[in-house]
Amino acid sequence: MVEQALSTRKESPAHGDTDGARLAVLRLLEQRPDMSQRDLSETLGLSLGKTHYVLHALLDKGLVKARNFRRSGNKLAYAYVLTPNGMREKLRLTRAFLSRKEGEFEQLRHTIAALKSELADHAR
Fold this sequence. Notes:
The protein is mainly alpha-helical and 124 residues long. The protein has one domain (3-123): Winged helix-like DNA-binding domain superfamily/Winged helix DNA-binding domain (Arc Repressor Mutant, subunit A). Helix content is 60%, strand content 11%. It has 4 helices and 2 strands, in the order αααββα. A hairpin with a 5-residue loop joins strand 1 (64-70) and strand 2 (76-82). The radius of gyration is 19 Å and the shape is elongated.
């Protein structure tokens, strides 16, 4: 589901998080190859310029392939398909993302425990 692949602005990659943006774009395109750059931009909460930059970087690296198709009338549109290298990169980025978030989670757990202890000490 696209909703599970970063569908709201609250879940969008942090500003300046290029790997996060690349992972989000790869995840969405794997599920919805017919998404336009504008759709990607709106779904991820990124500017259209940033979305264009990330998508073209993926195309230039051969991680995504664009295929033309016609949609309603004479408008030309694209389907973006992950290449085998794109799938490998998505997995690599996913592992790195999970590792980073697990580290952040552990740090947050320690901070919460320390704050709770501090509050308990002050309550005595």
